[in-house]
Specification:
Blueprint: E1 25-29, H1 31-34, E2 39-46, E3 54-58, E4 62-76, E5 79-84, E6 88-91, E7 97-113, E8 119-123
Antiparallel strand pairs: 1-2, 2-7, 3-8, 4-5, 4-6, 4-7
Length: 129
């Protein structure tokens, strides 16, 4: 394996199709393609007013989310917070999180540092409207 790698995130497979969430969600994960051992990255785009139907948490992985465009909300633990372009959200291991796009959609990059494969999906994460 090389000591470096270059990958265009938009050239990677869209994983949202495997979760039956297309076309409301686009999700492209780069850890494996880059040969990442401890660092991971993903590109995610949520259609306008789309809410991920689940939350998730990591046992050992800290994550950063950078809002590239649009706006929306995040639920982190029991707290719901607004997000806008260029906001950066850091989430510690063990804390659950989920995302919801605003009226123009939400586009973000997620960076993870830690072991891969420690994600737990959480159904019924958002409160009923």
């Amino acid at each position: 394996m090389s000591d470096y790698a270059i990958v265009n995130l938009k050239d990677l497979d869209d994983s949202a199709g495997r979760l039956n969430l297309s076309p409301s969600l686009e999700a492209r994960f780069g850890r494996d393609a880059l040969g990442g051992e401890r660092a991971g990255i993903s590109y995610q785009r949520l259609s306008p007013n789309f809410r991920l139907p689940f939350g998730h948490r990591h046992a050992r992985q800290e994550e950063l989310y950078v809002i590239l465009s649009g706006s929306g909300r995040t639920k982190v633990g029991d707290e719901i917070r607004e997000l806008r372009q260029w906001d950066v959200l850091r989430v510690a291991p063990g804390l659950a999180r989920g995302f919801e796009a605003g009226p123009v959609g939400l586009e973000l990059l997620a960076f993870g540092a830690g072991e891969s494969g420690d994600a737990e999906l959480l159904d019924d994460f958002w409160p009923a409207d």
